[in-house]
Amino acid sequence: MAGTNTVRILDGNTFVVSEDTGDIEATPSEPTGLFSLDTRFLSKWVLTVNGERLNTLSYDDLQYYEARFFLVPGVATHYIDAKLSIIRERAVGGSFRETLTILNHDEKPVDLQIRMDAGSDFADLFQVKDEILNKKGEIYSEVDGDRLRLGYRRGNFKRETVISSSQPARYDQNGFAFSVHLEPNEQWNTAIDVQTFALGPGGRDLRMGLRAHGTERLALEQDLQEWIRNAPKVNSEHGQVSATYRRSLIDLAALRFSPVSLGGQTLPAAGLPWFMTMFGRDSILTSLQALPFAPSLSKTTLRILAGLQGTRFDDFRDEDPGRILHEMRYGETSAFEEQPHSPYYGTADATPLFVILLDEYEKWSGDIALVKELERECRAALKWVDDYADLVGNGYIWYERRNTDTGLENQCWKDSWDSLSYRDGRLPGYPRSTCELQGYAYDAKMRAARLAREVWDDPAYADQLEREAAQLKERFNRDWWVADGEYFALALDPDGRQLAVLSSNIGHLLWSGIVDEDRAAKVAEHLVGPRLFSGWGVRTLAEGEVRYNPIGYHNGTIWPFDNSFIAWGLRRYGFAEEAATIANGILDAATYFDGRLPEAFGGYPRELTKFPVEYPTACSPQAWSTGTPLLLLRTMLGLEPHEGHLSVDPRLPIGMGRIEVLDIPGRWGKVDAFARGRMDMHKLSA
Amino acid sequence: MVDATTRFFEDLDRRGFEPVLVKTSGTLRFDLHEGPQSTHWLLQIDRGNVEVSREDREADSVVGTAPRLFDELVTGQENAIAALLRGDMTVSGDLRLVLQVERIFPGPSDSRGPRRVFEREVR
């Protein structure tokens, strides 16, 4: 989406994407702007001095919420002679603030015309890539005394951008300007404030009184410091591991999102900047990854998703009673139901994953109160699995969108149109069913059985769930096993035919526990075998399949988050060495991205490319890629809550050296975990 | 003739208990404005127990809409969250309360819900 020279800063779901000069000139191919509540509030923000555009000497995104740009007048070839420098410092935190500083380095005084062109198209986030020619409402621009008001009105839907400056400015409909006289070595500055408003009738803002954290820069900084202070410390002999951990921790802080309805509690949003909103699947999986390090995210995620659990049938939103939401959006297309995200429920995995997260969270935190609080929602989620997800009537989770215009075709994590295929490359019809969904259903039932027995005091329900889970496991191991390949099929079609391709999804099956013991070794062998394992990680689809493509989004690339759950699954079945192999590959790859793992990278063999080839994507950091190093640390150290204490059973990759994780929070208070590296093991063939 | 809004609140009052609201407590007032006239409905919710009255008194949360839109909300023709984003419904006070109560509104009457494969074949 946005080019590589864009600078992004954000707070909650307010963010700014600009060119490296700090300018914003939005086009469909460069979707820059100031965004809040899924709406663009500035699409033009261009600074000129004496009519001239500025050129970047350097820029610095100091923290996720602030950036600084050093500029000079003129184009690149001229700047050596510059007698003037301009510094733009900006931060988001509720509103968007920019401080302009202009320094005169000349021996002579200068007179300057400083101008900011400002405008907004008020595009919905879903429209930023399109030419917006047919906005249904009216865009306006008004000079209002000492401020400029940009607005958009469609019925009662009103969004406004209000711009003001600490130095008196001349405002017009297209921006504002200053005339400045500077003596030699004199400087001038002004603070520009840009407020965004989502107004209902009577001028009441949708977000009134609700903020994730303080809106001041200082408050944001304190918040970040506190976040880091409260998390465990990681020290490693292999210096990159602690650096990657620290990067992940800071990115996770940036990705915290406070929904309008929750009064300041935060959960992980899916990705920065375009997916700064609630996603059922992404928020749950990221919370699971981060549990040993930031358990508070799990609690909020569970509460928020429970509070918005489906209660009725709504075909437009693909809502059913008990279903956990897929995605919430606040923009114009949601408001006018041109998109179904108010919220949209079309996901088949978030509902069982919700139950899994609650159980895992309790094992770590001992927070019985939350398990009691969410009993009803858990039961409703499990009922959804049984009653509404089984579209074929054979005891599996299936999906098929009812909203055929704007709903999602694929409702599993591999959600691109061609992610599921038969061996001959054909795509299946509907409904569809992927293997990991059945694993999640099995795990959800097993975990809910524990909660029913130990917390809800309902042993009969626990027995029933365990019985159903056992039957599901037996059925699954019969129907989904690909005999001639010795792995599990990616998916089934409604006639019971297997989509018998080899895919990374089988790793999630290990994580869920649905795999029969005597088949686990074969599955593990495939995961670290040459068709799936590239040397960096496990490919989404195995080399040799018809649709395999090393840069196919879900047909051959490597997804770090996928690998972290695969590693967890391998450890669950006792394949510690294989888990370490995957952890090693992914953590090595992280070092090529300064510790910030991308959403996906190419499935090329490691010995061929020598470095991981990034898949060009819209979002960085991506929440579940950010959570990946955290879950890999957990699997390498073998951290497992066990009967009220934390057991540690490390198995580090060769050459990793010593790792210590200090102050791991949980029902045990805070404990430390230490792991010593091994020098003498021979490497798995990869 | 009784309008849909009155029917909705009367049904709610008769039920007296709403399981979806079992974790919800607070007071919520609906102000249905039509020109100079306003109709008020007050919900007092105590962990799922709901009392309905037509009092115009202070509440934790106050929702404002046109009576016609509210009729459509309680019959599933319109969606409350979309209406809120659109500005056709306003909320002052505790938004969480509104989002919880919104869940007891019905879905669209023409929504069929999930259907099994064999059910489709016999259609």
From TrEMBL, chain B:
<dbReference type="Pfam" id="PF02036">
    <property type="entry name" value="SCP2"/>
</dbReference>
<protein>
    <submittedName>
        <fullName>Sterol-binding protein</fullName>
    </submittedName>
</protein>
<dbReference type="InterPro" id="IPR003033">
    <property type="entry name" value="SCP2_sterol-bd_dom"/>
</dbReference>
<dbReference type="InterPro" id="IPR036527">
    <property type="entry name" value="SCP2_sterol-bd_dom_sf"/>
</dbReference>
<feature type="domain" description="SCP2">
    <location>
        <begin position="19"/>
        <end position="105"/>
    </location>
</feature>
